[in-house]
Design brief:
This protein is mainly α and 147 residues long. The protein has 5 helices and no strands. InterPro entries: DUF2798 (IPR021529).
């Protein structure tokens, strides 16, 4: 959840903002650990509680697994992209300023779009594949034990 997709998203969004160059990537890699700390804190303290309250209002008992997963992704990406558009700028520029608020309506939709597509096309399929393999391995161990 907090690994390759956050790195990919951060590198891509920073590249869009400052240009795609080795210098920009090296600077971004130095800031990534601080971004991860912010992401972990935001997920734990803001996104999970908020999404947990909002999900039941939109999801019914008859809604399928894929619909629930998609809504969960959409809500998490929305919350995190809003906060990280502001906090990520502060971490990246190493200063707290009003700049992220001034540019918010220009920058946030792009950040949201990038984060959503990376989550949908890269992060979630890999995570589901990994979980499927993990469960298959656990099931095969149970079968061996049951014999």
């Amino acid at each position: 959840m907090f690994t390759y997709e956050k790195l990919t998203t951060s590198l891509f969004i920073t590249g869009l903002e400052r240009g795609f160059s080795n210098e920009v990537y090296l600077e971004t890699l130095q800031i990534i650990p601080f971004i991860w700390i912010a992401v972990v804190a935001l997920v734990s303290l803001v996104a999970e509680p908020l999404v947990g309250k909002v999900m039941p209002k939109f999801v019914g008992q008859s809604d399928g697994f894929n619909a629930r997963v998609l809504l969960n992704i959409l809500l998490h990406v929305t919350v995190l992209s809003i906060f990280l558009t502001i906090i990520g700028t502060w971490i990246g520029t190493k200063q707290i300023s009003i700049e992220p608020f001034q540019n918010f309506l220009h920058v946030w939709p792009r950040n949201f779009g990038v984060a959503l597509w990376i989550e949908l096309l890269i992060a979630q399929p890999i995570a589901r594949f990994a979980m499927k393999k993990l469960h298959e391995r656990q099931d095969s161990k149970r079968e061996i034990i049951d014999l």
